[in-house]
AP-4 complex subunit epsilon
Amino acid sequence: MGSQGGFGQSKEFLDLVKSIGEARSKAEEDRIVLHEIETLKRRISEPDTPKRKMKEYIIRLVYVEMLGHDASFGYIHAVKMTHDDSLSLKRTGYLAVTLFLNEDHDLIILIVNTIQKDLKSDNYLVVCAALNAVCRLINEETIPAVLPQVVELLGHSKEAVRKKAIMALHRFYQKSPSSVQHLVSNFRKRLCDNDPGVMGATLCPLFDLITIDVNSYKDLVISFVSILKQVAERRLPKSYDYHQMPAPFIQIRLLKIMALLGSGDKQASENMYTVVGDIFRKCDSSSNIGNAILYECICCVSSIYPNPKLIESAADVIARFLKSDSHNLKYMGIDALGRLIKTSPEIAEQHQLAVIDCLEDPDDTLKRKTFELLYKMTKSTNVEVIVDRMIDYMISINDNHYKTEIASRCVELAEQFAPSNHWFIQTMNKVFEHAGDLVNIKVAHNLMRLIAEGFGEDDDNADSQLRSSAVESYLRIIGEPKLPSVFLQVICWVLGEYGTADGKFSASYITGKLCDVAEAYSNDETVKAYAVTSLMKISAFEIAAGRKVDMLPECQSLIEELSASHSTDLQQRAYELQAVIGLDARAVEIIMPSDASCEDIEIDKNLSFLNGYVQQAIEKGAQPYISENERSGMLNISNFKNQDQHEASSMHSLRFEAYEFTKPSMPSRIPPVSLASTTELVPVPEPSYLRETQKVASSPSVSNADPSELRLRLDGVQKKWGRPTYSSSETSTSSSTSQKTVNGVSKVDATGTVNSKAHDNSYNSRKPQVEISPEKQKLAASLFGGSSKTDKRGSTVGHKAGKASSHAVEKPQTTKATVKSTAVEKIVVQQPPDLLDLGETTMVSSSPPSVDPFKQLEGLIEPTQVTSSVNHGGNKSPDLMGLYVETAGSGPSTDDANPLSGLTNSAIKNAHEGTTTQLSKGPNTKHSLEKDALVRQMGVTPTSHNPNLFKDLLG
């Protein structure tokens, strides 16, 4: 802008920008901005300020907000500027309010009318400014106010207006899909727009729609392929080129859409093969945008139904990426390789040396991406090498978040592909030792279960060797200075169960180690509890074997210390240990049998063996047991009726329902005289908790109450206490949410494979003078050696590792063979719908609904409410249906047979909201029950002699 005051700005504004740019500290910048705020507050409130000056003040306010300071005192002036007739001032006002306000701001309501007027303007620049504000400021409640004008602008003569209208509709769909669901077909029609910019803008909402429901857009595959072919052949104007690439962002979006449409669909994928192959051949890889298109092509090839030629082309591109000196391209190559090996696992073997180099690269981001690739290509032949490298990397990093992820992956791979139980235990020891606090506690339980169950076969020697090796390894590890708490729990449990089982170690030696652990980790009560229990097990096993137990002095002091502990759990364990030592061998053998950790223990939760004692106590006058939910006052409202029957049998129990009206005393054989249903009682002042109790008792039986029963009508009484009812908006949102079929079809295995010999992609061809070290060749042979065709992920190992994985933590991955077979079944059974007609699809089903929603409302709300809801829907229907008719196709409608076809979704939604509001009225039950419980603590019991005793107490 220079010293000329460019763009019509004053010298003050230019000096402000210059002084802020020259500020040497944040404090100096804040001082300058605060001084500017005071100046603007004074000048912007002056009367008769010229419009040119006000425009500059608004721009300076925008600058203040950009620097993080509050300029809310000028928001109203920016809103006023949007009403100005001058194009420059109006666009400045719209720019300011879109930066100042959010969709929930209180001032939004002031500019809705202005936006409606500007959307109908003859000047397309004004319309574009209004559409920009629509995308930024219109919320879910104000969408209906501007929706008709936005839909009308889809046919505007200016392509810029049509493009912004598509963007506004896309924004509406993101905020409230139900409000524009009937306008979805407009996106299909705009796909055929003459302007490439409008067509490219339409791809964004179509991508979101296809992501949710793929099958409804299968008929557009031919259209997308045709558009991509025209773009790749440079038929678009030169203005859409970027770095000499024809409309690259449109190409990328089309490839993403085609990847969704071709997933698991052979017929749709066959239409894409030619155009994707042409892009592989014609795309220039010398620029970043060209490499981005090639990467998206690889993602598309890995998603659609496999084709050998396309997989071969993708493998060549991946080879170029991995051989590049750029870390970004290497990263992209590793990621693309991880996607492609799901379809063709043989490709990883062609790039084994490049993967090894990336694994040893100092770039940590590239190394992490390489570990993700190795995780995807793990099998039983290379699991040992991959897990060892992952553990070494886990030890070297300090990021706990990523260390947790690496540890969980190591555990998952070890449980799924472990070649032997011994290796599995050693691997788990390493993971627990270096990341024990970050591992899920279930993993420790699975490890203990594996050691206890052994191989699961009738091979006692193998099981004993497994346990012996575990004990020896833990005795070596226990001397480490600092071990995780979870790992120490596993160590104590194993030493207690099997420390003296094979006779290699004496009981005194094991007990000494356990006492050392309890002393070293005295602040960890869980570890001390495990150690004391292990001491009790060893002592019990010694007593059962007939050997004398000599307690070490450190064990005696530990028991004495825990006997006086503040923890009741540790106290009980210490007393149990002392009690077990004093028993004879036969009793100890019964209560703590040897090697019985896997035995099922039957627990009588109801304590049925005490039934006789309880019955005798009740006969002597003892009170019956009160359940926990009754004690806490959380009794369900639906149990109130059942309590009436319970009171007839036991007159001493408390009643938790509302009090009934006093009925005239008469013989039970004579039915009571029914009062007129129109009788109303005038509500009188009474204690608040009594009124709430009556409302709670009457709320669950509104629909099935006897009309002759006399009850209070408290609909008009203001509720002052109690928990507020649930808002109907949440209920209506959940009830009106429609379920859509999501394409869950997975990729199917390729029938053909890639001939790896057909490629000359030896990694050392780029550097023939460098000799590959034998260590790297050996590592590559370990990672990529072995047949990858026959070894499928998820295969079980013949050893105990398979059994360990059955007890392991639930994994998010499913067996691919199962998914693929399911995908094939879905393709065979489900025929894609015929959507060749680009006319608008109807949103109301032609078949009558199985359940009439208005029948369900009968008896729940008053007839006047039902009538008002229907009338409301009928009155609102012509406006929205009129929009629907304007864009409808020429085909006849199939909804005439449906009596509810003229009813909009909003009417049904309002009806449901009314129902929900009626059902959710009334105070919370817990408050009433707590007040009744307070009275119950006074020790008063209602009897047949004085039924109104509680009423007297409550006033």
In short: Strands lie at 241-242, 245-246. The chain has 45 helices and two strands. The chain has a mean pLDDT of 74. The radius of gyration is 38 Å.
